[in-house]
Amino acid sequence: MSFRGLRTSKFRHVFGTAMRKDSHYEGIRVTRNSWDSTFCAVNPKFLAIVTEAAGGGCFLVLPIEKAGRVPNNPPMVAGHRAAVLDIQWSPFDDTIIASCSEDMTIKVWVIPEKGLEESITEPEASLESVHQRRVGFIAWHPSAHNILMSAGSDNFVVIWNVGTEEPLSLIECHTDILWSCGWNFNGTRIVTTCKDKTLRVIDPRTGDVISERKKAHDGAKPQRAVYLKDGRVFTTGFSRMSERQYALWDDNNLSEPITLEEIDTSNGVIFPFYDPDNNMVYLGGKGDSNIRYYEVTEQSPYVHYIDRFDTSDPQRGLGFMPKRGVNALQNEIARFYKLHPNKCEPISFTVPRKSELFQEDLYPDTASQVPALSADEWIEGKNADPNLMSIRDEFASVLPAKPKLAGLKKPNALNRPKLAPSKPTSTNSVRDSAPPKPAPEPTPPPPKVERSPPARERERSPPREVHRGSGDRTSVAATAQKLQQQHNAYERQEVHAREEEKVEEGAGAKDPPPEPPKPEPEPEPEPAAHYARQRLYEDERARQQLYEEERIARARENARAQEKRRSRYDNPDLYQPRQQPAAPQPQIPPDFDFQELLEEVKGLRALVRQHERRIMNLEDALGIGD
């Protein structure tokens, strides 16, 4: 049995965080339409939200940095005659947005750079006269300019040239209402899901079905599909028992799914949001209060669950920020805009890192705003992947510059001078016959300094005296001189003792004379650190003694004061409790008329009631009552 370790991934620790309340967009009447759409679109400049409207369709466009409460009557984009069902920003221009509606039209709008100052009712382009029923979904081409796809309830998928407002192709292979449609990475194929439970991969230019799978999900509720960067298809749907599922497919062979997993038993439609840069899929269900996120890889089980972000409030829609709009300074890899009934709440997904530098592995090159193809080139049959850009370029002014390896201008410190080679034997007879130079005279050795006896032969020195200053210490030279004198005296005493022993041996055995006492060496000067420690120790002892004396004095003073107070309270002659003065009794004059006072109180009460009725009438008239 082999042990299978943890999967290596840089996205194993992704955390979702709801932003602070001052980053919310409040006071928005989000639409209550039952159509299965996200009702929100966002880019680095603007946030667009479909709102509730009477007598037509409109949506709100706000600058992304103007968070807070929206005015009561903000300017709107109001040009549709019926409810707006889907909105999408152009990937190549942050001021162009397309919208589709129940009025069977698609309209393209241009938003001013500073945002809406007044409502817009006239679109820049109107795509109509093809769809015969409501248009539910739209999607821009990922690499070709001005190419737009729309899908309606009339079972048609139409490819448009927005610049000329003309349809390029009409796809009629579907037998029922479409539930979703989307482009692949370079726009050469589209994938659709339909109410007939069939998953189709179609050529957008010719309308031919490349591959299809009936009953991709067995459930009768709506299915959604997105194309992945490597050509695989990710779908969400329901099982026969109404259990929510996700599946991964090969677009060239839809006969069997690569993987199929159940999620839960909720009944809300799941919207998949795909990040092609990090190959991550985020799943947010309509009416759910959580967002799940997965990483798609080439290894089994192919779709790896990471975590989920939970909140207490259900979501009415979601908007997904392109990678150009995330905050790379905080390692943010995704940002959602969650719709509530009356506000929009941003949610940030980050990867914690200790380093504050730009994380190259988290931010590979992403799709830029420069189209790879024009509309005419795409119509002619050319294909190209989207142009890419570096996220570092967007934050070049605030991110630390990448270190550059400059040439070595200083001399190499490792290049040491080489030793000169040994001098070869000379063959010059003239030079060899010259008399050799006299050798330099040898330098006399330094005089031998006689040392004092070893420490084990000297008697133990008395305790050292405490020196208060550096002026009292003997200099090094004077100490060395004294030690030399002691050593010389010690040697003379030994020589004298040996001579006396020789004389005694010749004259006869006698009692040896007592040895003269050896001079005691003077104590060596102690280092300055010792003096400092000694002074600190003595100062601390003095402070403690002073503190103890003060504490004893205060305790004695308190005891005397307490004894004095106790003796005062015990003696009734010295302590007299303070008498409280009696409250003065009100003096009522004998001729006071109580009946007159009662009549005056009744009159004041009637006047107060009259004023209260007037105030209530004014509040009702102004509409400011409770």
UniProtKB/TrEMBL annotation:
The keyword Coiled coil applies. PROSITE patterns: WD_REPEATS_1, WD_REPEATS_2, WD_REPEATS_REGION. Gene3D superfamilies: YVTN repeat-like/Quinoprotein amine dehydrogenase (2.130.10.10). Residues 448-471, 489-508, 535-571 have a biased composition (Basic and acidic residues). InterPro entries: Coronin, DUF1899, WD40/YVTN_repeat-like_dom_sf, WD40_repeat_CS, WD40_repeat_dom_sf, WD40_rpt. Residues 407-590 are annotated as: Disordered. One of its GO terms (molecular function) is actin binding. WD repeats lie at residues 77-109, 128-170. Residues 4-68 form the DUF1899 domain. It comes from the Eukaryota. Residues 472-488 have a biased composition (Polar residues). Keywords: Actin-binding, Coiled coil, Repeat, WD repeat. Residues 594-621 form a coiled coil. The keyword Repeat applies. Residues 435-447 have a biased composition (Pro residues). It holds the Pfam family WD40. Belongs to the WD repeat coronin family. This is Coronin. It comes from Branchiostoma floridae (Florida lancelet).
